[in-house]
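Table 4 source record.
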Amino acid sequence: MSANPLRIILGGPNGRLGSEISKIISRQTDLALAAGVGRKDQFSKSTPNFDLMLDVSTCEGVMAHLAECVRLNKPIVIGVTGFSEQQNQQIKAASTTIPILQTGNFSVGINQLLQQVRQTAKALGPTWTVQIEDIHHTGKKDYPSGTALMLAQAVMDAVKQKISVETVLYPEKSTSDPSQTVSIISVRKGDEIGQHNVTLTNASEKVVLSHTALTRSVFAEGALVAARWLAGKAPGFYQMSDVLDR
């Protein structure tokens, strides 16, 4: 392994997560922050050389930076949610040229929860109703969270059925038939870092699987685990499950 640090360009360095990532990079000997770029910043001749981009800015910023990474043949780790279907297709297409890791959540614990949800939903079967609650700070404007959608997909993968997903923003209430729908309730309050609860229910029992982030550093640390892992990989589309080998 080279003694030279992995030079990272960070998209969204001034956001909540970006600021935490910057702090952690500054304490590492194997990582170096080459530059920080905002969502509207373009790469230029003055942009320093780098090995990998880690983008936690916005959907708009990621799409602009992605084009630059393809042009420069540099890998990119994407930790932003809320992309349109067309944007997701563009990201997948770019992964045939460069290595791309995209995730809705960098937390190791969340990725363990995804595995547990798959196992539990498969064991219980499609007759159990499923409700997912995602709780975040008031500054998070998009809903549902990318993690909540990942959890809903985990349920569908487990029961091998296409299920309608209904999303509501609290205090709105679900109006769909719970036996035919995975319901996602999004709550935005205070400075909540992130909590996800998956409740599976039948007529006589209830199973609750849950994860709560206690510090924002869990996401920043996970992002850098992903960055280290992606460096040197062949072009392709990767997820945190690949990093954690699950």
